[in-house]
Specification:
This protein is α+β, with helices and mostly antiparallel strands and about 260 residues long. It has helices at about 1-10, 10-30, 30-100; strands at about 105-115, 125-130, 140, 145-155, 155-160, 170-175, 180-185, 190-195, 205-210, 220-230, 240-245, 250-260. It is rod-shaped. The model has no long low-confidence stretch (mean pLDDT about 75).
Length: about 260
């Protein structure tokens, strides 16, 4: 008996072949119902774990694909919501601007700020309108006067800001009706020049554009007087003005295009 076992051990391939042959012959000789039973048992033992694992893997892959698609849809909806909210705020701001702009005398051109001056101190910015923009057109937002267009290449233009050296405005004190010129000299404030000592201007007065000069229409808000002083050796008052516009957060603006093109200021 030992020699048979030893022979089978040394010839493993032959032994497996012989065992398979005997099993096949035995299975062939069994009745049909017993063959079916044996096949079911073998299937459950050897094949079912692989089928089950394959099904689980397929389900995991399917769930992953669905989750990926849902995440992409969620990102898309979030972007759409952000865009919708931005458009809503933009429309609200444009409506606020239209409430105080002289719509009858001017064509209102909406524009977006696309770049700020990269210098040490921003005195200009670039805007893009939905129509062609010309030079020397006034630019405003819902708070008041922003500046004027100094250069244009079609729908893209450069705006000289009111807080820069290239923009001056003929102004009027809304309360006392005193006239002067608003310009920037240094710092963050503006200055109202050419106001005689006998003209009364007090802190808290609102300055508006006077309409003189040919560029800016009258009635645009410029800012509020924050300081008034006079020296005996001077003929004019020294008046500081805080701009009405927050120049550090400009986003949407409007360009005023009159029926007759301005000549400059």
């Amino acid at each position: 008996m030992k020699w048979v076992t030893s022979l089978l051990y040394r010839n493993k391939r032959f032994s497996l072949f012989l065992a398979g042959l005997l099993f096949s012959l035995t299975l062939f000789a069994l009745p049909l119902n017993q063959k079916t039973f044996v096949c079911n048992v073998l299937q459950n033992i050897f094949y079912w774990p692989y089928w089950s694992t394959a099904g689980i893997v397929a389900k995991v892959i399917s769930v992953h694909e669905v989750n990926t698609a849902l995440q992409a849809e969620l990102v898309r909806l979030k972007l759409e919501r952000i865009t919708f909210e931005e458009n809503k705020l933009e429309n609200e701001r444009f409506r606020e601007m239209l409430e105080f702009l002289p719509v009858a005398e001017f064509e209102i051109i909406p524009a977006h700020v696309i770049a700020y001056d990269q210098g040490r101190r921003s005195s200009s910015l670039a805007i893009k309108g939905n129509r062609e923009l010309g030079r020397f057109l006034p630019v405003v937002d819902e708070s008041g006067l922003v500046g004027k267009i100094s250069a244009s290449t079609g729908r893209v233009a450069t705006v000289s800001l009111l807080i820069g050296p290239n923009c001056r405005v003929a102004a009027r004190d809304k309360q006392t009706r005193s006239l002067g010129i608003v310009k920037w000299q240094s710092g963050r404030d503006l200055y109202l020049d050419d106001v005689a000592l006998d003209n009364k201007v007090v802190i808290g007065d609102t300055l508006i554009s006077s309409g003189l000069g040919g560029v800016f229409p009258k009635g645009l808000i410029i800012g509020v007087v924050t300081g008034v002083s006079s020296k005996p050796s001077r003929f004019f008052r020294e008046i500081t003005v805080k701009p009405a516009v927050d120049f550090g957060s400009l986003d949407n603006v409007m360009v005023l295009k009159p029926k007759s093109e301005p000549s400059g200021d």
